[in-house]
Automatic annotation (TrEMBL):
InterPro entries: Capsule_polysaccharide_synth. It holds the Pfam family Capsule_synth. It comes from the Bacteria. It comes from Pseudovibrio ascidiaceicola. This is Capsular polysaccharide export protein.
Length: 434
């Protein structure tokens, strides 16, 4: 039996790493933790972590020494496209070491994603409907999940602490390289005007959704994502979301019925730097669609989706919510759920005219297979949720159950799609079982 030794790199800004360490200790698994910034230290103080004070360009050599000195067999980290994690992934692939990346769940709420080898473009989750159905057939049904509530203030506070501590106190880790689209000060201070209007904006959004439903309006939902999101920067071909918006209107203006409207729902955590309402209105006016455009900041998303003709997005997890509700979905970026039979595989022009309904049985099998392989029930912010998730993390890692049940393929099946779409793909970006 292989003796496991886990290297833990950057973690989610919460007490989740502590829960993982407790589980590794309970199973007598050796672990090594590395801090890259003061925020890493803040959330993991007392766990015996080593500090990396060097430059990013020297991280690979330090990582290779860590692997040799500690007999590392597995590397675990939060967010697989961070600079330090991309290097770790490549080194691990060359050495035949497992890498496990985790983030918020595809099946929200109360789920966490845990994948071996990468996510999005780099995910090894199958995109063949027949393989998904076959692999899910003999798996038990997912049990009803309990909920792990937490206060929004806790989540927001953790995020602010995580991103501002390295800015105000850079001296202990002077060479730490952030991978943020915006400078944190600009990012967070831009929230203030929006927060001041949040109550009024929410009321206006509720009124707009109720009016659409009462009038039985014909509309498509466009859930906006954040410009700085890894899902946009690494798993789509859009350099700026204005390109996505422009692409929508270029076809909507020509192919959608004259009665159809586009309803843009702003992301609840958007920092307001881009001023999306202004950008959307300017592009809509350019294509003569301003009167057919509605922009809301708040409102009940599920209610909005259920009464819509369809949902168009880049690759947001909102797509999973829409599919589960039987709503047609068109994904314009690389998404793990972008699968024939679920999302509409035709052109946008065809989607506006007659959106294709998702296969409910296939979605059921997708969720079941995900729940037994790359989705872990739990929460980062709820103590019980952390404990349950950490137990399942360690169990799957030690039993080689991540990306299991024979459904996963060697080469990430979305790579060719990403290349064809113009998504930049670095060399040596995925593992193989060969």
């Amino acid at each position: 039996m292989t003796v496991r030794s886990v290297l833990i790199l950057q973690s989610h800004p919460s007490a989740f790493c502590r829960a993982l360490v407790e589980e590794f200790e309970a199973h007598n698994v050796k672990y090594t933790i590395v801090n890259f910034s003061l925020s890493d230290w803040y959330f993991r103080v007392g766990l015996g972590a080593q500090a990396y004070w060097g430059r990013l360009k020297n991280w690979q050599s330090r990582l290779e020494r860590l692997i040799d000195e500690n007999g590392i067999t597995d590397i675990l980290y939060y967010a697989d496209r961070r600079p330090y994690h991309r290097i770790a992934h490549d080194v691990a692939m060359q050495r035949g070491i497992n890498t496990f990346a985790y983030e918020f769940g595809y099946m929200r709420p109360d789920w966490i994603t845990l994948e071996r080898g990468g996510m999005g473009v780099y995910s090894h989750f199958p995109n063949d409907p027949a393989k998904i159905k076959q692999s899910a057939a003999n798996l038990p049904e997912l049990k009803p999940t309990s909920h792990f509530p937490h206060a929004f203030l806790q989540e927001a506070t953790n995020e602010v602490i995580c991103n501002l501590i390295p800015i105000f106190f850079p001296y202990l880790f002077p060479f730490y390289q952030r991978d943020r689209y915006y400078h944190p000060l600009r990012d967070y201070f831009s929230y203030i005007p929006r927060l001041m209007r949040q109550k009024r904006l929410g009321q206006e959004a509720d009124e707009a959704v109720n009016t659409l439903i009462q009038e039985q309006a014909e509309y498509f939902v466009v859930p906006m994502q954040m410009q700085g999101d890894y899902q946009i920067r690494h798993h789509s071909h859009y350099k700026h979301l204005s390109g996505f918006i422009r692409e929508l209107y270029s076809t909507f203006s020509q192919s959608a019925s004259a009665e159809s409207k586009l309803v843009f729902k702003l992301h609840p955590f958007d920092n307001n730097v881009e001023n999306w309402p202004k950008v959307i209105r300017e592009i809509a006016a350019e294509f003569g669609c301003l009167e057919r455009t509605i922009i809301i900041d708040g409102g009940n998303l599920n209610q909005l989706l259920r009464h819509s003709r369809g949902c168009v997005l880049v690759n947001s997890t909102v797509g999973m919510e829409a599919l589960k509700s039987g709503v047609p979905v068109k994904a314009m970026g690389i998404a793990v759920y972008d699968i024939a039979g679920l999302t509409d595989q035709r052109s946008l022009d065809d989607f506006w005219r007659e959106p294709a309904l998702p296969d409910a049985d296939l979605y059921h099998d997708l969720e079941k297979l995900m729940g037994h392989t790359i989705q872990v029930h739990g929460s980062f912010f709820n103590s019980e949720g952390r404990k349950i998730a950490a137990q399942e993390f360690v169990k799957r890692i030690l039993e080689d159950g991540v990306n299991g049940h024979g459904a996963f393929v060697e080469t990430p099946p979305r790579l060719e799609q990403a290349k064809a779409a113009g998504v930049p793909i670095p060399a040596n970006c995925y593992w193989s079982d060969k």
